[in-house]
Amino acid sequence: MMIQLSMRLSAVADMVTITGILADVGTDHGYIPVFLAGEKRIQRAIAMDVNQGPLKRAQEHIRQYGLEDRISTRLSDGLEALRPGEADSIVIAGMGGALMKRILAQGEEAARTAKELILQPQSEIMEFRRFLWESSYEITEENMVFEDGKYYPMMRAVSCDKKQKEPDILALKYGEKLLQQKHPVLCQYLQWQKEQKKRILENLKQNAKQDVSGRIGELEQELGYINQALKLIKEAE
């Protein structure tokens, strides 16, 4: 019986395209390497975490599924314990965008030599996409899932020799590939955001006790971006 992944982790695992060596940063329970190695979709894996507790849990899962010969564990702050060229694919999922930026910047040599990065930031998504562009990574695929009341965007990125054309604000905010695909979960997210922001805007206009013109301006701008994205999707249909 193979390990069952959550919808989010399953979508992250599905983005791995290279059958060689996988490094999973912040592995937690080791679910992704155990799943991919168990399914023979990768040859070997290195499960890495900054804390001993998660590594112990990962080791238990590795033993449970008899994968000790194919998955090793490493105590590592980000990519610190990964040698350049050691991994074909690097997965960094389920942590904040700012922390992921630090990991990629500090472990740049190891990150650059991987053939693909599978990335799933939990926050500051727009800033994270901008960081990838500024750092000469190209986003080659994007996906988005909705699970347990939360939206999870994720992406595959590859290192480029030169910086790509600067993405526009909608591409940075919502994901160029997701917009091009008219991704159903992105459409759902945009509609949800639109309703939320409209409700907040109406409440502010009706009930504000002090000057909230700055906040109203921000919300109107956000609604403008959402409507532009929805229009773009509709035009592409």
Report how far apart the termini are. 41 Å
| Strand order within the widest beta sheet | 3-2-1-4-5-7-6
Count the DSSP helices: 10
Helical residue percent band: 40-55%
Counting helices, strands and paired strands, the structural category is: alpha/beta
Task: Count the beta strands.
Answer: 7
Report the mean per-residue pLDDT as an integer: 94
Strand content: 15-25%
**N-to-C SSE series?**
HEHEHEEHHEHEEHHHH
Coarse morphology:
elongated
Question: Runs with pLDDT <50, length 5+?
Answer: none
What is the makeup of the main sheet?
Answer: 7 strands, mixed
Radius of gyration: 20 Å
Summarize the structure.
This protein has 237 residues and is an alpha/beta fold. 49% of the residues lie in helices and 21% in strands. Helix 1 packs across helix 2, helix 4 (97-106) packs parallel to helix 6 (125-134) and helix 9 (184-207) packs antiparallel against helix 10.
Structure description:
- By secondary structure, the protein is of the alpha/beta class.
- 49% of the residues lie in helices and 21% in strands.
- Helix 1 crosses helix 2 and helix 9 packs antiparallel against helix 10.
- The longest helix is centred in the C-terminal third of the chain and has 24 residues.
- The termini are far apart.
